[in-house]
């Protein structure tokens, strides 16, 4: 009984040790003879027959839009790129190596396709993934995150309501289509969907679509295959609307409202100049955003310039109106002066005579001689006033009062302006009204046109 059990245990142990074979990745590499000095894997395109094509499957997904710089026409997306190709030198049977199907290796040990991005203007300096995967059937997978600093021709016509399309073209630098073919792994709809799901940051720009397209480029009688990824992104305009469009509209409405400020004083002029200066400060901001070269004039520039010009016109009109009113008031002053002088002269003549007679009367009266001679005149006056004969002092006071009244009349004539204006004021009022109506009409027309254009 005991020996039988012993034999079974022995058998079991023997079986267990024999099936528990230990494999390392190094065994796979030894089998493949893949060492750092073995140049077979590094130097040439990994095909056993030179007529074989190497097919590269490329996948690109947008992780983030890091920056879009309008001024320098640069588009900086952060993308994930995966490249898959076949290496005909690599193959092993996973069953021989405890089921190992994939091994990761440093990138430098294998041949890699010479893919590059045509639009890239800066070398990517972010850290790269140092490893690639090889699989038992010879498939090599390389994955990397790339910070692509690319040029992108942007159309600023509709800024800030613009949608931009930026291309990233990927192709082999020297291998023609007979040697290396590049095909997209995901079609446009899948790439768009993946990018939407993985997108980490969406700042000012909203990601709309990622489309992929294959083209063949001819160069030196050789054809090169290229994948073009087109990113469609849309600007979120809120910030620019709040920062820029609305303030200008506010200033414009202030300018319109200034119609109701009286023209008589200089306040209106000062107000309009202030509003115009405020707009020119806003124009400086625009200078920071827009590129100086653009084939089509940006609508926002038209918006600013036209509004600026309209406000300038209204300022000039105010100056004209104030000038007219100035002329009018000067003319009126002159008229009044002459009128008053003439009236004064005639008054003076009669007054002088009167005064002389009166004075002589008073003198005579004050002399106390021939009192009865003056009595009829004096009596006439005093009867008119209070119907009774007054004392001498009262008579003198009365004459002084009359004189004062006359002077006051003269002064009133000089100082108080006439209520109804002269012909210049009439013109000014007419110009003001006509200008205001046409101003409002042109502003409305212009704004509706430009917003329509922005919306289209
Ligand atoms: C492995 O490569 C070395 C040179 O790197 C070579 O000498 C050797 O013969 C190769 N072995 C096999 C089995 O191919
Ligand atoms: C971007 O690529 C598309 C083809 O996918 C092409 O029609 C378009 O002209 C390219 N745009 C630029 C700016 O090169
Ligand atoms: C894109 O690929 C997905 C699967 O990869 C497929 O279901 C879909 O029909 C494809 N769309 C087009 C337009 O080819
Ligand atoms: C590019 O050329 C290859 C080989 O001639 C061909 O198979 C492929 O269809 C071409 N692609 C395009 C987009 O014309």
UniProtKB/TrEMBL annotation:
Topology class, membrane: Multi-pass membrane protein
Residue intervals passing through the bilayer: 238-257, 269-287, 299-324, 433-451
Every Neurotransmitter-gated ion-channel transmembrane domain range: 246-326
Ranges of residues in domain Neurotransmitter-gated ion-channel ligand-binding: 42-237
Swiss-Prot/TrEMBL keywords: Cell membrane, Disulfide bond, Glycoprotein, Ion channel, Ion transport, Ligand-gated ion channel, Membrane, Postsynaptic cell membrane, Receptor, Signal, Synapse, Transmembrane, Transmembrane helix, Transport
Cellular component terms (Gene Ontology): postsynaptic membrane
Cellular compartments annotated: Postsynaptic cell membrane
Keyword Cell membrane recorded: yes
UniProt cross-references to Gene3D superfamilies, sorted A to Z: Neurotransmitter-gated ion-channel ligand-binding domain, Neurotransmitter-gated ion-channel transmembrane domain
Database matches in PROSITE patterns: NEUROTR_ION_CHANNEL
Major subcellular location class: membrane
Catalytic activity: Na(+)(in) = Na(+)(out); Ca(2+)(in) = Ca(2+)(out); K(+)(in) = K(+)(out)
Entries under InterPro entries matching the protein: LGIC_TM_5-HT3 (IPR049944), Neur_chan_lig-bd (IPR006202), Neur_chan_lig-bd_sf (IPR036734), Neur_channel (IPR006201), Neuro-gated_channel_TM_sf (IPR036719), Neuro_actylchol_rec (IPR038050), Neurotrans-gated_channel_TM (IPR006029), Neurotransmitter_ion_chnl_CS (IPR018000)
Keyword Phosphoprotein: no
MF (Gene Ontology): extracellular ligand-gated monoatomic ion channel activity; transmembrane signaling receptor activity
Signal peptide stretch: 1-19
Family recorded in the similarity comment: Belongs to the ligand-gated ion channel (TC 1.A.9) family.
Function: Forms serotonin (5-hydroxytryptamine/5-HT3)-activated cation-selective channel complexes, which when activated cause fast, depolarizing responses in neurons.
Record's protein name: Putative 5-hydroxytryptamine receptor 3A-like
Organism: Scophthalmus maximus (Turbot)
Upper taxonomic lineage: Eukaryota, Metazoa, Chordata, Craniata, Vertebrata
């Amino acid at each position: 009984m005991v020996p039988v059990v012993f034999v079974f245990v022995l058998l079991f142990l023997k079986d267990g040790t024999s099936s528990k074979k230990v494999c390392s990745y190094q065994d796979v590499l030894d089998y493949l003879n893949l060492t750092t000095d073995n140049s077979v894997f590094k130097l040439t395109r990994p095909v056993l027959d030179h007529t074989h094509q190497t097919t590269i499957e490329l996948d690109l997904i947008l992780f983030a839009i890091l920056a879009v710089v309008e001024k320098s026409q640069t588009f900086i997306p952060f993308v994930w790129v995966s490249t898959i190709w076949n290496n005909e030198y690599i193959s092993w049977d996973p069953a021989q190596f405890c089921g190992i199907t994939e091994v990761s290796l440093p990138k430098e040990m294998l041949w890699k396709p010479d893919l590059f991005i045509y639009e890239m203007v800066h070398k990517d300096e972010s850290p790269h993934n140092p490893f690639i995967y090889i699989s038992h059937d010879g498939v090599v997978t390389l994955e990397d995150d790339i910070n692509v600093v690319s040029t992108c021709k942007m159309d600023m016509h509709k800024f800030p309501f613009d949608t931009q399309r930026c291309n990233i073209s990927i192709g082999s630098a020297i291998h023609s289509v007979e040697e290396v073919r590049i095909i997209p792994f995901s079609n446009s709809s899948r790439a768009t969907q993946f990018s939407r799901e993985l997108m980490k940051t969406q700042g000012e720009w909203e990601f709309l679509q990622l489309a992929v397209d294959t083209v063949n480029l001819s160069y030196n009688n050789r054809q090169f295959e290229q994948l073009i990824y087109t990113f469609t992104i849309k600007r979120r305009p809120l910030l620019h609307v709040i920062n820029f469009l609305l303030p200008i509209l506010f200033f414009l409405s202030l300018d319109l409202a200034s119609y109701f400020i009286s023209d008589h004083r200089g306040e209106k002029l000062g107000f309009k100049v202030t509003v115009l200066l405020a707009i020119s400060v806003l124009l400086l901001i625009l200078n920071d955003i827009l590129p100086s070269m653009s084939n089509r004039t940006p609508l926002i520039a038209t918006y600013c310039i036209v509004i600026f010009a309209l406000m300038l016109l209204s300022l000039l009109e105010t100056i004209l109106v104030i000038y007219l009113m100035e002329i009018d008031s000067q003319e009126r002053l002159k008229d009044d002066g002459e009128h008053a002088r003439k009236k004064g002269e005639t008054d003076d003549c009669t007054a002088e005579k009167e005064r002389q007679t009166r004075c002589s009367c008073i003198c005579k009266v004050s002399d106390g001689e021939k009192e009865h001679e003056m009595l009829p005149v004096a009596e006439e006056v005093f009867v008119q006033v209070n119907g009774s004969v007054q004392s001498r002092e009262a008579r003198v006071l009365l004459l002084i009062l009359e004189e004062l009244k006359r002077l006051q009349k003269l002064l009133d004539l000089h100082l108080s302006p006439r209520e109804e204006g002269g012909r210049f004021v009439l013109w000014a009022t007419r110009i003001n009204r006509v200008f205001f109506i046409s101003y409002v009409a042109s502003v409305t027309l212009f704004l509706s046109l430009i917003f329509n254009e922005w919306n289209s």
